[in-house]
Amino acid sequence: MRQLLLDITEIGPPSLDNFIPDKNEELLYVLKNLVAGGRQDRFYYLWGSTGCGKSHLLRAVSAALSDQYFTTHYINCNQANESDFNFDSNCLLIDNVEQLNNATQIKLFNLYNQIRENGTGIFLASGSKPPAQLNLRQDLATRLGWGLVYQVHELTDEKKIEVIQNYAIRCGFELPLEICHYLLKHEQRDLSSLIELVNALDQLSLAKQRPVTLPLLRELL
Questions:
Q1: pLDDT mean over 70-99
Q2: How far apart are the C-alpha atoms of 155 and 26, rounded to whole Å?
Q3: Which of 10, 41, 189, 219 is in the most buried spot, having the most CB atoms within 10 Å?
């Protein structure tokens, strides 16, 4: 039965339904309206700190629009090169724009203008700062600010602890508070990474027939 619970509570790929909207309710409503067919606004820019959920939202929108037969193209600028910007797509999702170099900034500038001119495409980008504060070409930064701009607020530590403890309970075990604090202090703080570690910890507990404790977590890490 416990293994069945593990299968049921698997998070799965990013979606708008498994994004926790705490302090981001308006943004989530806007994006759900977008994928439901609301096309009054076609240009969006999301900004916030690492781990706040920007990439989750971009990938979720990409998946939802792909299911509607949009030709979507997602680029993570942390790993992108010029060739990644050579494509034909009516839905462009650009993650971590602050990592663009001079050449890829020009590429993105041209793609933005193409989507704007075609009258039907969708453009969704994310970065660590508001458009005006990005260290990018002024013409590109200006265009990123032309559409809807939203800050993505990171979950508080208290909320993250609540989420991962509730997740553990649904999996059939209790997650001690000291483990939660340890994870937040020493590991990646985004929610998906935390839940992956909670899953791995539970699997190790099952394999070794030992309770979930801080020493067991240290073995895992």
A1: 89
A2: 15
A3: 189
Cβ(168)–Cβ(6) under 8 Å? no
Gap between the Cα atoms of 121 and 91, Å rounded: 6
Question: What is the reported pTM?
Answer: 0.83
Distance in angstroms (rounded) separating the CA atoms of residues 112 and 99: 17
Element (H, E) at 152: none
The pLDDT mean for the chain works out to 88
Amino acid letter at 32? Answer: K
Is residue 106 within 8 A of residue 92, CB to CB? The reply is no
Helix H or strand E encompassing 213:
none
* Residue 62 contacts residue 93 (beta carbons within 8 Å): yes
Q: What is the mean pLDDT of residues 7-34?
A: 82
Rounded to whole angstroms, what are the CA distances from 32 to 26, 28, 35, 57, 182?
10, 6, 5, 10, 35
Q: E-strand spans in 117-211?
A: 122-127, 148-151
Max distance between CA atoms of the chain, in angstroms, equals: 61
Residue 205 has pLDDT above 80, yes or no: yes
Q: Is 68 exposed, middle or buried (0-12, 13-18, 19+ CB in 10 A)?
A: exposed
Continuous segment of H or E residues that includes residue 95: strand 91-95
